Structure formats: C-alpha cells, structure tokens
Amino acid sequence: xxxxxxxxxxxxxxxxxxxxxxxxxxxxxxxxxxxxxxxxxxxxxxxxxxxxxxxxxxxxxxxxxxxxxxxxxxxxxxxxxxxxxxxxxxxxxxxxxxxxxxxxxxxxxxxxxxxxxxxxxxxxxxxxx
Length: 129
What we know:
Elements: H1 2-15, H2 18-26, H3 28-46, E1 48-65, E2 76-92, H4 95-126
C-alpha cells in the first residue's frame, strides 16, 4: 500500500493548483521567450554560442549467437552498429546581431506580458486560492 500512496502523492503534488495550471497555460509563450532571452544574454556574456551537433560512431554489439539449429552455441556473435550521440560545440556569433535579437526579444516579452495580464487576472478570479 505504501508503494502506491507515495508515488500517487508525488504525482498529485506535481500537477499544481487549478489557478497555477490556468496561469501556466496563459503564459506558455512568455516562458519560451524568457528562455530565449536567458540564452541570448549568456551568448553575449560569453562572446560565443553553443550549437548541438549529432555525430555517429561505430561500436561492436552483441547481435546473436553463432551456431546452427541442433548444435551447441559457439558463443555470442558480434556485429558493428552505428550509435548516434550529441555534443555541444562553441560557435562564433555576431555580437551586434545578438544584441539586436536580445532587444527584440525583450520588446516581444513586454508585449506578451501586457497581453497575458487580463488572462492572469481572469485565472485568479476564476480559481481563487
């Protein structure tokens, strides 16, 4: 019984209140812009950006067993397999263009905050805490 109750409580606690869910839905785009602003500010502070690159390498994997039906196995058979992985690499950026992008994102954030204000008020009125 304890094994069921604890995960159930954790799941319910992660859901949030109806007011929080309503406000979260109304400000979804704002949170995306906030993440982009933080990323752009980090890029300007560092002087470069990071890009995620997907690469592939070949590795040996067990892919079956050698032997014929009715005869004892002779051990595992190894095959070459391609495995994809990602890594982050530094990337040069135009700091002037990045500053212009940051200003544009901040202006967009202000417009979104103004547009979301009535929705947030409606959520607070509909679901008082």
